[in-house]
UniProtKB/TrEMBL annotation:
UniProt organism field: Deinococcus malanensis
PANTHER family: UDP-GLUCOSE 6-DEHYDROGENASE TUAD (PTHR43750:SF3)
Pathway assigned to this chain's UniProt record: Nucleotide-sugar biosynthesis; UDP-alpha-D-glucuronate biosynthesis; UDP-alpha-D-glucuronate from UDP-alpha-D-glucose: step 1/1
EC class (word): oxidoreductase
Family note: Belongs to the UDP-glucose/GDP-mannose dehydrogenase family.
Positions in coiled-coil regions: none
NCBIfam families on file: NDP-sugDHase
Reactions catalysed, as given in the entry: UDP-alpha-D-glucose + 2 NAD(+) + H2O = UDP-alpha-D-glucuronate + 2 NADH + 3 H(+)
Residues covered by the UDP-glucose/GDP-mannose dehydrogenase C-terminal domain: 336-439
Protein name per Swiss-Prot or TrEMBL: UDP-glucose 6-dehydrogenase
Length: 463
């Protein structure tokens, strides 16, 4: 049986919310803290400030062990483990902004109880931040000599859209600390995950063949580096696939076939090799930029990573050039953009390739009609600077369009009958960046990333 610990989670963004709810589900007593009063009030009403599949159900199933507050004094003194999960958004130079981490460390320090408490950093922070947090706590703790606290780095690797499965059935749990007692407490906290002794929720079933996660214990700074290196490597893998995709287009090879062929090599592996409009989201851009900027501080260049970022920027223009090759002058044309979120099953718009696509099309004088199954309300708030119209459905977006661009592989778009030209399109031209349209589709022209452009004359204009 799980020994229930008292846990405080500071910051209720993606990482903090997921962590708080998951730990409560595993049997711990959890308080989630955020300085954003509005967010906390939402959570107190049982509402979620973000969309993540099944998180609402997990929240309901764990609610007896969860509470939400804005008050450090009510959250910190009782906690055995305190997680820092605040944001580290990039500054203009690429370095992460650590102001929120500093605020959290200071407020935590002022409320420590003098007994052994473990402060865990889950935010992605540059190597050395754990030490810096420890020094901040030392500085701000009231009556420091009475306080005993330990700092642990515990990076998370969950993906948005599959966050619950990734948290309950992780490949590995990384715990970095320079004190064994800190690691011991976290092992105790994660015991139900480490030996998978919890009832798997029906809505997030344990994957076939999954047994238990690897426990990786390291020094504080190695754990901090693991997070960056993991994300940088994944970003690199995708940029590599995108770079090869461009060459495939030149020599008339097909990237889908190529990545299938190389992915079976176990040293390469099939995942994160899908070519597309480039990676987006809150992590890859931020973490690659941060790593490059950390290197710069030491006069150390990172040519491979720098190139991966460059390829990603170039990749966002590929869609536009394919469109231009077919439609020539884009000014005055009407183009449907399907999918705005940076990937399916989330309403997260951060660094979404669709943003750059819409911005560029609008600059070129295109009339853009965009649709997303869940991200439109958020886009209304965050993309007010872009010129586009919203469509209530994919069908509505495509009506009268000269072309449709699929930017996010939502299931809903896979279910469209692509065997005939969508009704009312002026041209049956689809630019499919995510391989949503089936291969055997016979309608008009379907262009993909990493495959040579179809003869523009093949494009039929439906009657
Ligand atoms: C990522 C990491 O996967 C996760 O481990 C880390 O903790 C946070 O960052 P996330 O940003 O949620 O997670 O999304 P992910 O599924 O990794 O996708 C990132 C971007 O890469 C998306 O824009 C996606 O469309 C793109 N992608 C992914 C590709 O273009 N090709 C691929 O093969 C895979």
């Amino acid at each position: 049986d799980t020994k229930a610990l008292q846990v405080a989670v500071v910051g209720t963004g993606y990482v903090g919310l997921g962590t708080a709810i998951m730990l409560a589900y595993l049997g711990h007593q959890v308080v989630g803290l955020d300085v954003d009063q509005e967010k906390v009030e939402m959570l107190q009403r049982g509402e979620l400030p973000i969309y993540e599949p099944h998180l609402d159900q997990l929240l309901q199933d764990s609610s007896s062990r969860l509470r939400w507050t804005t008050d450090y004094a009510s959250a910190i003194p009782n906690a055995d483990v305190i997680f820092i999960c605040v944001g580290t958004p990039p500054l203009p130079g690429g370095q992460p902004n650590l102001a929120y981490v500093a605020d959290a460390a200071q407020s935590i320090a002022q409320n420590l109880n003098g007994k052994l408490q473990v402060v865990v950093n889950k935010s992605t922070v540059p190597v050395g931040t754990g030490d810096w947090v420890a020094r901040l706590i030392e500085e701000y703790a009231i009556d420091y000599h009475a306080n005993r606290y330990l700092v642990v780095s515990n990076p998370e690797f969950l993906r948005e859209g599959t966050a619950l499965g990734d948290s309950l059935y992780p490949d590995r749990i990384v715990l970095g600390s320079d004190s064994p007692a800190g690691i011991d407490r976290l092992v105790e906290l994660y015991q139900p995950l480490l030996d998978q002794q919890f009832e798997a929720p029906a809505y997030v079933p344990r994957p076939d063949g999954y047994t238990t996660p690897q426990l990786v214990t390291t020094s504080l700074s190695s754990a901090e580096m693991i997070k960056y290196a993991a994300n940088a490597f994944l970003a690199l893998k995708i940029s590599f696939a995108n770079e090869i995709a461009g060459l495939c287009e030149c020599v008339d090879a097909d990237i889908q076939e190529v990545t299938r062929g190389i992915g079976y090599d176990q040293r390469i592996g099939p995942q994160f090799l899908s070519a597309g409009a480039g990676w987006g989201g809150s992590c890859f851009g931020k973490d690659t930029a941060a790593l490059i900027s950390i290197g710069r501080e030491y006069g150390y260049t990172m040519p491979i990573l720098t190139a991966a970022v460059e390829v990603n920027q170039r990749q966002r223009q590929v869609v536009i050039s394919k469109l231009q090759q077919h439609l020539h002058r884009l000014k005055g044309k009407r183009v449907a953009v399907l999918g705005m979120a940076f990937k399916p099953n989330t309403d997260d718009l951060r660094d979404a390739p669709a943003h750059d696509c819409i911005a560029r099309l609008a600059d070129l004088g295109v009339q853009v009609v965009a649709h997303d199954p869940v991200a439109m309300p958020r886009a209304r708030q965050e993309w007010g600077h872009l010129r586009y119209q919203e469509a209530a459905s994919a069908a509505e977006a495509m009506r009268g369009a000269d072309a449709v661009i699929i930017m996010t592989e939502w299931d809903e778009y896979r279910q469209i009958d692509w065997s005939s030209a969508p009704r009312g399109m002026r041209n049956s031209l689809v630019i499919d960046t995510r391989h949503v349209v089936p291969d055997n589709c016979t309608m008009g022209v379907v262009e993909r990333i990493g495959r040579r452009l179809t003869d523009p004359l093949a494009m039929q204009v439906p009657a």
